[in-house]
Amino acid sequence: MCNSCVLKEYPDRGNTCLENGSYLMNYLGCANCHQRDFVLINNKSSDDDDGEEIVTYNHVCTNCDHVIARHEYTFSVVDEYQEYTMLCMLCGKAEDSISVLPDDPRQSAPLF
């Protein structure tokens, strides 16, 4: 992983969790070949560990195959919520939780 290729290491992305893709707004350019081009996804793998899906891959420079960052995305169902996390030097860090029920109990208005 290369901190010279990114504008900010692990930017806070709120609840935006990417399973695939790259956050190019945070990409300065390749520190190895000094080009700013597309970022490729390399060595993508998906594992299922006790009901938790883990997707990992590398962001690499199109021109010289320099590894820019390692991306990790997780998905799991805990109680009645879908839990998402993302951790990547380029794409940032984020967490999200969505109810599997039609109406999210956390969003209900108090009766009194």
TrEMBL record:
Q: Name one GO molecular function term.
A: zinc ion binding
Gene3D superfamilies reported for this sequence? Transcription activator, Churchill (2.60.40.4240)
Keywords in UniProt for this one?
Activator, Developmental protein, Metal-binding, Transcription, Transcription regulation, Zinc
Q: InterPro entries per the record?
A: Churchill_sf, Transcrpt_activator_Churchill
Could you provide one GO biological process annotation from this protein's UniProt record?
Answer: positive regulation of DNA-templated transcription
Q: Which domain of life is it from?
A: Eukaryota
The entry sums up its family as follows: Belongs to the Churchill family.
Q: What is the name of this protein? A: Protein Churchill
* Species lineage: Eukaryota, Metazoa, Chordata, Craniata, Vertebrata
